[in-house]
């Protein structure tokens, strides 16, 4: 897979052109205003990007998860807000319904999610939780006749409050297991359901053109058939979803890291100091060489994880490695690109200013760097020592 097939390469070039010609000229203004880019999202939907890994019978493109990753990398070379909107809509919004949904749930939700006409979200994280999902979960869902009654709060939920958000998959405690542990299940809550309240957008350091909100549920009632998959399997669903999502986030982080290289190469050929373009100086050359090496390594890591995933092999360790390596690369490259640009790197009108603000969350979201190290160590058998 390290050499892209013609089909993958055609997709990559198509998204590269879209990112450069459609996204790049306007996204800075959306970012500065903190405004969700509905027109860009609509055009991405028309291209079929939201349906890349979803089968044609459900309204998708019939591709695979690696195709999604290639699209994410190309978008993130230009802007991460647009890339995370796509990533969350597919890997967290649509894929759980495709993986675990009933035929009726798939028929109801997937065609609109795959077309980008509707966005989905995954309500997992809570204000008092974080990496300790089962220990920090307080949201409950109680079966009352033929309805679930949901109460609780979710935090940092992407795509949850846009005008086109249609459904949120909510993880909630639905009982207690035989071992005395919380029984966690996932329940689909349509937007606009009474008792489901969406807060105003967070004021974020980065990803300013994406939608992230806190959600609250107060005696929110949905039909019993809105249970996603088996009762009590919500935590297992979440773990599978995150394993796949980490590969996608790694692709996004790789794109940001490569975008820093690309912007820096353009700049050092134009910016002159002491009689030469600054790219003439070895100090700058070495910075960019290290940046390219990081991006290249990150790409190989997520390609390898995606290859194992598509082959049906266990890929938890490889996904964690890809997420760890790529997020480090994004953060390091954003810092170095800002340094290369000097004072201009601190100006929001230059893409590297956005890249620097966007990079840090990649070491936190969908599993912190510390969690990735825990997963790698566990896969190496160290947790049992």
Automatic annotation (TrEMBL):
Residues 121-220 form the Acyl-CoA oxidase/dehydrogenase middle domain. Residues 232-380 form the Acyl-CoA dehydrogenase/oxidase C-terminal domain. Signal peptide: none annotated. The keyword Flavoprotein applies. It comes from the Bacteria. The keyword Flavoprotein applies. Keywords: FAD, Flavoprotein, Oxidoreductase. Pfam families: Acyl-CoA_dh_1, Acyl-CoA_dh_M, Acyl-CoA_dh_N. Its cofactor is FAD. Residues 5-117 form the Acyl-CoA dehydrogenase/oxidase N-terminal domain. InterPro entries: Acyl-CoA_DH_CS, Acyl-CoA_Oxase/DH_mid-dom, Acyl-CoA_Oxase/DH_mid-dom_sf, AcylCo_DH-like_C, AcylCo_DH/oxidase_C, AcylCoA_DH/ox_N, AcylCoA_DH/ox_N_sf, AcylCoA_DH/oxidase_NM_dom_sf. GO terms for molecular function: acyl-CoA dehydrogenase activity; flavin adenine dinucleotide binding. Belongs to the acyl-CoA dehydrogenase family. This is Acyl-CoA dehydrogenase. It comes from Thermostaphylospora chromogena.
């Amino acid at each position: 897979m390290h050499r892209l097939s013609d089909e993958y390469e055609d997709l990559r070039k198509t998204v590269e052109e879209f990112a450069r010609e459609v996204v790049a000229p306007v996204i800075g203004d959306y970012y500065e205003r903190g405004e969700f880019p509905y027109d860009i999202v609509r055009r991405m939907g028309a291209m079929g990007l939201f349906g890349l890994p979803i089968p044609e019978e459900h309204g998708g493109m019939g591709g695979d998860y690696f195709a999604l990753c290639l699209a994410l990398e190309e978008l993130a070379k230009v802007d991460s807000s647009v890339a995370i909107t796509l990533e969350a809509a597919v890997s967290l919004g649509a894929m759980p319904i495709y993986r675990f949904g009933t035929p009726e749930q798939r028929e109801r939700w997937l065609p609109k999610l795959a077309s980008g006409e509707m966005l989905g979200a995954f309500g997992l994280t809570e204000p008092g939780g974080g990496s300790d999902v089962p220990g920090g979960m307080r949201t409950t869902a109680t079966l009352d006749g033929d309805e679930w009654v949901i109460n609780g709060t979710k935090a940092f939920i992407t795509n949850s409050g846009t005008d086109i958000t249609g459904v949120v998959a909510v993880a909630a405690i639905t009982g207690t297991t035989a071992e005395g542990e919380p029984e966690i299940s996932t329940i689909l809550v349509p937007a606009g359901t009474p008792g489901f309240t969406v807060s105003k957008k967070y004021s974020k350091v980065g990803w300013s053109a994406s939608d992230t909100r806190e959600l609250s549920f107060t005696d929110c009632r949905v039909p019993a058939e809105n249970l996603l998959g088996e009762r009590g399997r919500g935590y297992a669903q979440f773990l599978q979803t995150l394993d796949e999502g980490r590969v996608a986030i790694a692709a996004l982080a790789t794109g940001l890291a490569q975008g820093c290289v690309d912007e820096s190469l353009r700049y050092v050929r134009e910016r002159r100091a002491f009689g030469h373009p600054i790219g003439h100086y070895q100090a700058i050359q070495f910075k960019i060489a290290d940046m390219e090496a990081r991006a290249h390594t990150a790409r190989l890591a997520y390609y390898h994880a995606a290859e194992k995933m598509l082959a049906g092999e266990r890929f938890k360790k490889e996904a964690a490695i890809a997420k760890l390596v790529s997020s480090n690369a994004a953060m390091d490259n954003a810092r170095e690109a800002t340094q290369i640009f000097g004072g201009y790197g601190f100006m929001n009108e230059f893409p590297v200013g956005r890249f620097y603000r966007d990079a840090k969350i990649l070491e936190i979201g969908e599993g912190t760097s510390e969690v990735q190290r825990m997963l790698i160590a566990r896969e190496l058998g160290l947790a049992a020592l």
